[in-house]
Design a protein that fits this description.
By secondary structure, this protein is α/β, with parallel strands linked by helices. The protein has 37 helices and 15 strands. The strands form five sheets. The chain has a five-stranded parallel β-sheet, with helices on both faces. The N and C termini lie far apart (92 Å).
């Protein structure tokens, strides 16, 4: 029995093992299938390719600039201009760059709104063609330039493998049987190969035994359309492309200028001419031309080549001895030179320089002739190079090319400084340290930390703001004197609601453009990206263990510490203004939290007051308008009347308001409108008049009834104790309503909502602003 049990157990184990192996094999087969499908680069016969071109010319006819543009727009949705309805909008849009620069990247790069707009404007210009130029991304150390370029190139390689990312190159497939002396070819190629001092000669001889085709891709990645002789190309396209609108685009738009202008490389040109001489029939020559998807591989330098400053210079011509001898033998001449430079490997691709220093300085200088006229010489052969040249540069290294006059108009510089958008700075910190840290801050505090960091990177003087804000004293109670916080908001795409109507009307296109132009000179000093991470790590390590959420006092304390690097370069007076702005914001939230009554709540408050003024203090009645019990008290009157006559009004002022209201209620509202005209109380003139005044002053004076109300403050302090239940019903209702709004609308916890209300009361913020 035991033996049988053991056998069964072993069989079961073997069965499970085989099943697991089968699942692994299936997974491997699926992986292999996916890779094979994604990496498929099977050459397409020319007639099939032309059929595809006739139907989808916008997909087939692309060079590297069009492909790069399409790649970026594949990952980046259309920009959103929050102020598109604004007559002064300049299209300063929000672009979601996450799929391009963050998702599936080893190290994410966070683009602020300023850089995103610069980059997208550059990319849009690619459609128009930026031939004979190099794009340099300029920024100080620690700005993330290398991360940005690495992520862009990674996504380019990824996109090129997708169905959307196809770009085609010429693939030659020479049919040996079509040539006049096939036997001579086999004889000559064997003799030729035997002359090569190569230990793989036997393998080479076996490979060409019975060979009837010679296939190879154009080393310069020429597009197949370029094999159509230039003088016939326009007429050929007119006959081929069915979509006449698209045809006109190809023939007239600058982005397709290369289709009619460019010529094939010297290898393809000489091969085409020799085949014409050998075969005599152009159709037979074209049958030997196929199209193949171009491969982009940074690792092998195909389509994408990246040079670091320490990489050795390489100027030795590249050749293919085996292919050279085959071509020579087949055509019985040596007219075709299979020779090209390393630049050819990225022709119609991307050639990138990581920092213009050391050996990359010489590489940039070597690009001079190519950037000037697109021509490069390899021995006696002339290459035409049309690549997307990209580079990174620190401001201090610009001297390497600034003194070369011919480079002046050939270099496009795109600033990639330290982050100037506090929202993006917050994203970076959360990405590095985790979202859970955000919960440790009270609302606006994490934002205040980011603003303190950004302040070190901005210019302290702004001619544009001086021209724009003619009465700066209007904002002196809550905005820093150099308006750095205003610039931060504008850079992040926010037009602050606290601006006066006059200044809003003056915020026209000229001011907006000049402000963004000023940003081009900012972000080159101050706290770097790497330093920001260290500062935040020090900050969170110091304050995250506190039992309560981090508040504004912690920000001031930390950045005032002279041991912190940032404290030495934060603009003088900025921290004080940061607190003032914080006070201004939270006062508005507390007021709004009290003010956010719904329509029914406002109506009920008025109905209860109009009914209560008919009775003496101390009486308790059921209000027939609301069916709620009212305890008539001086506190009840005071809370309502303060909205109309102010919190500092004397008792006599409040009594006069109450008596006047009561008089109108008795003589007109009740006796005439309600009893005679049968109107509902909410339809009476008195009710509408009070409601209009109520709505107008309620928000402005929302906190007014409570500023000097000791009961209100004590009730807040006692909120978590049994004593809270002893307070006036209306007062408890107001507090609960306010705290609920602070929690649900503004993101406070219950504890921080109580704290922030007490903060606003104790600092008498209602009188400060």
């Amino acid at each position: 029995m035991n033996k049988e049990y053991d056998i069964n157990k072993e069989l079961k184990s073997l069965s499970e093992e085989l099943k697991l192996k089968g699942e692994r094999l299936e997974a491997l087969i699926n992986l292999s299938s996916n890779i094979r499908e994604k990496e498929k680069r099977v050459p397409i016969p020319i007639d099939n390719f032309l059929h595809l071109m006739a139907r989808k010319p916008y997909v087939v006819l692309r060079n590297i600039f069009q492909l790069f543009n399409d790649m970026v727009h594949h990952y980046v949705p259309e920009g959103i201009d929050e102020y598109s309805g604004d007559k002064y909008s300049i299209g300063y849009s929000h672009y979601d760059m996450s799929r391009l620069l963050n998702d599936n990247c080893d190290v994410p790069f966070f683009a602020d709104r300023l850089f995103a707009n610069r980059f997208m404007n550059l990319v849009k210009s690619f459609r128009k063609g930026i031939y004979n130029q190099i794009c340099l991304f300029e920024g100080p150390p620690g700005s993330g330039k290398s991360t940005f370029l690495n992520n862009i190139l990674t996504k380019m390689e990824e996109y090129s493998k997708s169905p959307r990312g196809s770009v085609y190159e010429t693939y030659w497939l020479l049919d040996v049987s079509k040539f006049r002396s096939v036997s001579r070819y086999y004889s000559r190629i064997r003799e030729s190969l035997q002359e090569i001092d190569d230990h793989d000669i036997t393998e080479h001889l076996e490979m060409i035994k019975g060979e009837d085709k010679i296939g190879f891709s154009c080393p310069n990645h020429d597009h197949p359309i370029l094999q159509i002789p230039k003088i016939y190309r326009k007429r050929f396209l007119e006959e081929l492309v069915e979509d006449k609108e698209m045809l006109n685009t190809i023939l007239e738009k600058k982005e397709y200028e290369w289709v009619l202008r460019d010529t094939p490389c010297h290898i393809c040109t000489s091969l085409f001419n020799n085949l014409m001489d050998e075969l005599g029939d152009p159709l037979e020559v074209f049958k030997m031309i196929q199209a193949r998807r171009m491969k982009f591989s940074r690792q092998f330098g195909e389509g994408i080549t990246v040079y670091n400053p320490g990489d050795r210079l390489f100027d030795k011509p590249i050749g293919n001895t085996i292919l050279q001898r085959k071509i020579n033998s087949l055509l019985n001449n040596e007219n075709i030179k299979i020779i090209y430079s390393d630049l050819a490997k990225t022709n119609n691709g991307i050639y990138a320089l990581m920092d213009i220093k050391d050996n990359n300085v010489q590489r940039l200088m070597n690009l001079h002739g190519i950037i000037s006229d697109g021509v490069h010489r390899v021995h006696l052969v002339e290459e035409r190079i049309n690549s997307l040249f990209l580079g990174l540069i620190n401001p201090a290294d610009k001297s390497h090319y600034e003194k070369v006059p011919s480079f002046k108009d050939r270099i496009i510089t795109v600033n990639i400084p330290y982050i100037l958008d506090y929202k993006t700075e917050m994203e970076i910190l959360l990405d590095k340290f985790g979202d859970h840290h955000k919960d440790k801050f009270m609302p606006h505090i994490f934002e205040s930390f980011a603003r303190a960091i950004i302040s070190t990177r901005l210019n302290y003087e702004s001619p544009s703001i001086k021209k724009w804000i003619s009465k700066p004293d209007v904002y002196k109670s809550f905005v820093d004197k150099t308006f750095l916080m205003l610039k931060m908001d504008i850079y992040s795409g926010v037009i602050p609601g606290w601006l006066t109507d006059e200044d809003l009307s003056k915020f026209d296109k000229d001011i907006r453009k000049s402000l963004l132009a000023e940003a081009e000179t900012e972000g080159v000093r101050g706290v770097s990206g790497r330093q920001s991470l260290k500062i935040y790590n020090k900050f969170i390590s110091k304050y995250e263990k506190k039992e309560t959420q981090i508040n504004i006092d912690s920000i001031v304390e930390f950045f005032s510490d002279k041991d912190n690097l940032s404290s030495q370069i934060i603009p003088s007076g900025f921290l004080e203004s940061l607190v003032d702005m914080y006070d201004f914001l939270i006062l508005g939230e507390v007021k709004s939290a009290i003010y956010y009554y719904n329509e029914k709540q406002i109506d009920d408050d008025i109905k209860e007051y109009l009914y209560a003024i008919n009775f003496d203090i101390g009486n308790t009645h059921i209000n027939p308008y609301t069916n709620r019990k009212i305890v008539v008290s001086e506190e009840f009157y005071k809370n309502f009347e303060a909205i109309f006559v102010g919190t500092t009004a004397k008792d006599v002022d409040r009594k006069n308001f109450r008596d006047a209201t009561l008089n109108e209620y008795i003589t007109s509202t009740l006796s005439k409108e309600i009893m005679l005209e049968k109107k509902k109380i909410e339809d009476t003139g008195l009710f509408k008049s009070i409601k209009s005044r109520y709505n107008k002053s309620l928000k402005e004076n929302a906190l007014a009834p409570y500023v000097d109300n000791d009961n209100f403050r004590r009730a807040l302090v006692d909120f978590y104790t049994p004593e809270f239940e002893s307070y006036d019903t209306r007062l408890k209702k107001d507090i609960k309503f306010m705290l609920g709004n602070l929690i649900n609308i503004f993101g406070y916890t219950e504890e921080s909502a109580v704290f922030i209300t007490l903060y606003a009361l104790d600092k008498k913020l209602d009188k400060k602003f």
